[in-house]
Design a protein that fits this description.
By secondary structure, the chain is of the alpha/beta class. Helix content is 30%, strand content 16%. It is globular, with a radius of gyration of 23 Å. The strands form 4 sheets. It has a 7-stranded mixed sheet, sandwiched between helices. A 5-stranded parallel sheet has the order 7-3-2-11-18, with helices on one face. Strands 1-8-9-10 form a 4-stranded antiparallel sheet. The termini are far apart. The protein is built from 18 helices and 18 strands.
């Protein structure tokens, strides 16, 4: 007989089943599940890219009928952080933008190869992305701009001998030795002021106080980008924003296969039963339209649960109003994980990631321009047509502001006469260089004014203001994944002893991989699905450029100058 799990540790897996420690990580899941129930149904909590990928994999690789899969989503739309909405009149908005690479995003490409293109017969979403990038290659000419509006030579990374030594030391230090160290504890002030660090931190959104372990993982996973960080020549983009380019086609495919989406459904708690055979998820506690209800898992049903959210409690501002910074966790994204973690330490420590908003927040903004004037001036200044440049970072900006001009249209319904620009700031609590407000206090037009001064375009400021709508977005937890942590703070995809559930999202632990990427969520979904379903299917290997002699040599040459 099982007993309700109210507190204490997750039960240990019986020793007779721990026979596969020498096998790869995902293989241990597979072997472990040989004696488990063959699941015929699945309930998925959340509808971000990890959850959508899990549903695709259940259908494609596990053979589960789509009609046997239910997705519970608190929002009214799917996609999680992969969003994109608005219109030409009120203003378009994306909270963030995603950049991909051929080498690193193997799991994402694997999934998208199975999703038909919504607009082109006999092509997949992966095919569309590759075709778009063949036409519009990234080759940025204006990665860094100084206080005098000069484009800096970003190919000069600015390293001295000590900087190189510190970087090599980081790469050579085991994660267990780095522990909870911050980036700024591993590097000198000179390193943190180099061209390299200005580009690397704004490309991946690192703060100086973030985890040194996460930076090390990024350096190893994206080592191939080091020789081209000044051009972002290895970056791949989608033709439209990621909601239109990735989420819509995936949801369409899932609906055509019969998957059920229950929107407006908040999952706030979960009940488990612990027994000799392990830990079983019995019930999910939900809320819909203000009415609580429970969802009980059947004997042949598994669950994949998204824990935490980088875009929880995000809020939009407008031209004249700054977005609200929510500190009291009004969305339900963190509630479920916190409640689960109270019941057993094997579920990790969510407070490490959601307990310090001032260390994890930043703010983005989307410009909707009903005149080509600003786009033409940026193109003339940077030497890049829209869609061919990378992040333009204003290195001396007190907000550490960066912008990027996407290929138009960036939204499926975007008129030809309308243009967009996306940007963000990492440092929100310092006064602007040109306006007497912090970024967190600034409305959209204030941000636009600051940007125009950084570009030196004061002569067209009033006309651009008159024809532009700016939507700023505050995100309290956007880089919470980078918080300094210990090894046990993030739970495994399948916690020890879990019988019928797996965990999804950016806050599970996948050794050697990097959070704050779409790839991380999709890889986690693969481990979860293949592990629960007992599939003898390989998860694509994690790419490490250091194992490629050509990449390693090119990176070493770049590092050594």
């Amino acid at each position: 007989m099982g007993s309700s799990l109210a507190s204490g540790e997750c039960p240990a897996w019986p020793r007779s089943r721990i026979r596969t420690s020498r096998l790869p990580w995902h293989r241990r899941y597979h072997q472990r599940n040989d004696e488990m129930t063959s699941f015929q149904q699945a309930c998925i909590v959340g509808s971000g890219i990890g959850a959508l990928s899990a549903a695709v994999l259940l259908i494609r690789d596990a053979g589960m009928p789509g009609s046997h899969i239910r997705i519970l989503e608190e929002s009214t739309l799917p996609g999680g952080a992969l969003d994109g909405g608005g219109d030409a009149r009120q203003g378009y908005v994306t909270r963030g933008g995603r950049m991909f690479t051929d080498e690193t995003y193997t799991c994402l490409w694997n999934v998208l190869e199975s999703i038909p293109s919504p607009g082109t017969p006999n092509r997949t979403v992966r095919d569309e992305i590759m075709a778009f990038n063949a036409l519009w290659r990234s080759d940025a000419h204006a990665r860094l701009i100084d206080r005098n509006r000069r484009i800096l030579d970003a190919s000069d990374l600015g390293f001295n001998f000590q900087d190189r030594l510190e970087l090599m030391r980081l790469l050579a230090t085991p994660e267990r030795a780095l522990g909870t160290k911050r980036i700024e504890e591993c590097f000198s002030t000179h390193f943190l002021d180099t061209h390299f660090w200005a580009m690397w931190r704004t490309t991946f959104a690192f703060q100086n106080w973030h985890s040194a372990v996460e930076l090390k993982r990024y350096m190893l996973r994206f080592l191939q980008e080091l020789p081209r960080i000044h051009t972002l020549g290895g970056v791949r983009r989608t033709e439209f924003n990621q909601y239109d380019a990735i989420v819509r086609p995936m949801v369409k495919w899932l609906l055509e296969h019969g998957v059920r989406f229950d929107y407006g459904t908040r999952v706030s708690d979960a009940d488990f039963t612990a027994g000799a055979q392990g830990l079983r998820l019995d019930t999910l506690h939900c809320l819909r339209e203000g009415r609580p209800f429970t969802y009980s898992l059947g004997a042949h049903e598994c669950a994949l649960i998204t824990i935490g959210s980088m875009v929880a409690d995000s809020r939009n501002g407008n031209d004249h109003q700054a977005p609200e910074l929510v500190r009291d966790q009004r969305d339900g994204a963190w509630t479920l994980w916190r409640n689960m973690a109270r019941k057993a330490p094997c579920f990790g420590r969510p407070e490490v990631f959601c307990g310090n908003v001032d260390e994890s927040k930043w703010e983005s903004f989307t410009l909707t321009m009903r005149s080509p004037l600003l786009i033409r001036r940026i193109q003339a200044f940077s030497g890049n047509a829209p869609g061919t440049g990378g992040l333009m970072t204003f290195k001396d900006s007190s907000w550490l502001m960066s912008i990027v001009v996407p290929h138009a249209p960036h939204f499926e319904d975007q008129p030809e006469s309308v243009f967009t620009l996306w940007g963000y700031g990492l440092l929100l609590d310092t006064q602007g260089n040109y306006i007497e407000k912090t970024m967190s206090q600034a409305g959209g037009q204030d941000i636009l004014t600051e940007l125009m001064h950084h570009l030196g375009f004061e002569d067209i400021l009033e006309e651009v203001r008159r024809t532009t709508t700016v939507v700023p977005v505050m995100m309290p937890y956007i880089t919470s994944e980078f918080e300094c942590r210990s090894a046990s703070d993030r739970p495994p995809v399948i916690p020890a002893g879990a019988r019928n559930f797996a965990l999804l999202g950016q806050y599970v632990e996948i050794p050697e991989d990097v959070v704050f990427t779409v790839e991380y969520s999709v890889r986690g979904a693969m481990h979860g699905v293949y592990g629960l379903m007992g599939l003898d299917t390989e998860v694509p290997a994690i790419y490490h450029g250091i194992a490629d002699p050509k990449v390693a040599l090119a990176s070493l040459r770049t590092l050594m100058g």
